Amino acid sequence: MAGPVEQQIHRDPALFYWILLPITVVMILTGILRHYLSTLLQTTPKKQTLLKMREQRHLMRARNMNINHAQVSKASFNRRKEWFADKVKEGTLLADGPEGRGKGKPNPLSDPAMMEGMMGMMKGNVAMMVPQSLIMGWINAFFSGYVIMKLPFPLTPQFKQMLQAGVGTRDLDVRWVSSLSWYFLTLFGLQPVYNFILGSNNAASQVAQQMQTQQQGNPMGGAEDMEKIFKAEVENLEVVEHWYVLDGVEDRLLAKLATGI
Amino acid sequence: MPPPYLTAPTSSDPRPALSLFAQAPSFLSSQTSSWWSSLPYPLSLFLNTESQEKWASYENLFLACLRTGDHETAYACLESLTDRFGKTNDHVLALQGLYQEATAQNTEELEEVMKAYDEVLKDDPTIFSVRKRRAALLRSVGKSAEAIADLTVLVDASPTDAEAWAELADLHLSQGNCEQAFYCLEEVLLVMPHAWNMHARLGEVVYMSAQKMDGGDQMKALAESMRRFCRSIELCDGYLRGYYGLRLTTGRLLEVLQGAKKGQLTASDSLAGDLAPPSIGTVKKLNELATSKLAEIVRRGTAGEKGWDGYSEAELKAARELIDSDTQKIQR
């Protein structure tokens, strides 16, 4: 019995029509359903208030000034720098005004805007988790214990756990795939199919969704102390070594056009 | 080349708007005559032709129709945009205001539109598109001072908005405030450092203010203006306005430099960061360069050679006049 003998198992062709195909179709349909569900549950991001926006954009302006300082003359640059430093000292650029200084970080749990963001994420997660566990239960109840297909290529025994979940035979060749494993394979491998059906930025695959939440970072991290950021920006402007883009531009131009013609 | 209704109208030249307007009926019928657009709600979702280009075309068509006075087609475009994006969308609000402004018959109706803007802004002051429309309306009814005040508030709230800064600069210039216009244009450059048209515009403003000065100040201003034009050409070598300005400034600068005393030429204040005035030789070379380039652009632009056909006719004409006036001077 031992040896590299090709294992032969006679499978009922009905296995293909009644298990492999239904699982695949159901998985695709769940993905599509999930996509539309999360689109429905999405909350539109709340609009920033005017003052908050002003604060952000003044910060942006200071950063632009830092990067593009060469475009204006030294006198103009110094004038802008001093204006910005003055305003930061007065605190009028902060969203809460000069009185709002030194309050430190607000508690993220008491901030209603924060809570809303967390609720949105919860909804997304629920839309992911519920169908997933339901379908896994359904497959376990109806199709567990079948071997439904044979992979056309050999694999090392380490894949046994992954491909033969729910089938308790030790010396079955790794190439045989059980129904539960087929479920997992489709769960992780259908992204290209969703891309084809729903367009590239769909919300069907839970894997992509999880990556997204990781990138967003911790929602509890919350607001930073804007005053510190502004002060750091003033310092950045202080240390800028100014050069002027118009310095010697006529010679550059002449040299460029002399070689160009 | 993209279809004409995809590119936003950049110039105030009426001809593109007219040709666009002529294409409006065929475009609109191509959008609606498909059989699937009449399917019931859930099915129509699967088959709609949703794309950014579609809505950009709608908006451009809308603007062109307003300019050509075809208010019905414009209204149809506006309707589709409103259906798609909702009545409270920032952009749609501004377009609606634009439509009302265009169809207003008298000043009372314009004031109604203004009141509507105020209402919208009272509810939500962050809708910048409506704020901009408000300032534009103030300007178009001749209340420049109020428009300036409006825009000054706007750029204080949103200092990275290059469009608003440029408009404010234009307004200040129309009021003769070169200093403020200069500041505003510098802000635009801080946001968009490679905008060659803004460099040239800044050069024009400095040149204008130089007309009022005299002596060393005028020379400095002229040199600065000349360098701005140089930078503009450096960024875009084919920019007619840049060469025109370079030709003008170098011509003036040559007169001033030749008339100036020796002592003034080297008096550059390095503490204030001023650049030393350019040497006469460089200015002469630049002047020749600008003249030859202008002549080339005028020649090829009027002939409509391939690759040289994007120039506006008015600008070509002005450039030709500039060259002609010089040759006359030399002949005399």
From TrEMBL, chain A:
Its main location: membrane. The chain crosses the membrane at residues 15-37, 126-149, 180-198. Keywords: Membrane, Transmembrane, Transmembrane helix. The keyword Lipoprotein does not apply. It is a multi-pass membrane protein. It is found in: Membrane. InterPro entries: EMC3, EMC3/TMCO1. Belongs to the EMC3 family. The EMC seems to be required for efficient folding of proteins in the endoplasmic reticulum (ER). This is ER membrane protein complex subunit 3. It comes from Friedmanniomyces simplex.
From TrEMBL, chain B:
Residues 108-206 form the EMC2 TPR-like domain. Keywords: Endoplasmic reticulum, Membrane, Repeat, TPR repeat. It is a peripheral membrane protein. TPR repeats lie at residues 162-195. It is found in: Endoplasmic reticulum membrane. Pfam families: TPR_EMC2 (PF22890). It comes from the Eukaryota. The keyword Repeat applies. One of its GO terms (cellular component) is EMC complex. Gene3D superfamilies: Tetratricopeptide repeat domain. Component of the ER membrane protein complex (EMC). Belongs to the EMC2 family. Part of the endoplasmic reticulum membrane protein complex (EMC) that enables the energy-independent insertion into endoplasmic reticulum membranes of newly synthesized membrane proteins. This is ER membrane protein complex subunit 2. It comes from Friedmanniomyces simplex.
